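Hi all, long-time lurker, first post. I run a small reading group and we've been trying to get comfortable going from sequence to structure in the token notation. Rather than ask abstract questions, I figured I'd post a concrete chain and ask someone more experienced to write out its structure so we can walk through it together at our next meeting. Sequence below, copied exactly:
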Amino acid sequence: MKLLSVKEFRDSATKALKSKEPLIIMRRGEVAGIFFPTPLESVPFELKKDIFISLTDSIKKKLQTHGVKEEEVLEDFERYRKTRRRR
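-- Answer (accepted) --
Happy to help. Here is the structure in token form:
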């Protein structure tokens, strides 16, 4: 397992993501993220489920913190899709 600071990860992300060993990304001495280089099919369903729940909870908290409603995000996304098609 390899430890990288956020800066080191940012500066060498492409190389780091090609790594065959797990990476722990640290920010100010705390874990900011973990990367496991494995095909998605081999990740156990329960782990995928736990990751999904954790990410959606995190997004929900950030939206609430900024006073943004889910409907606003969906409307914004739809507006973006419509403008993207016109290009």
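A couple of things your group might point at:
Helices lie at 6-11, 13-17, 45-65, 70-86.
The chain has four helices and three strands.
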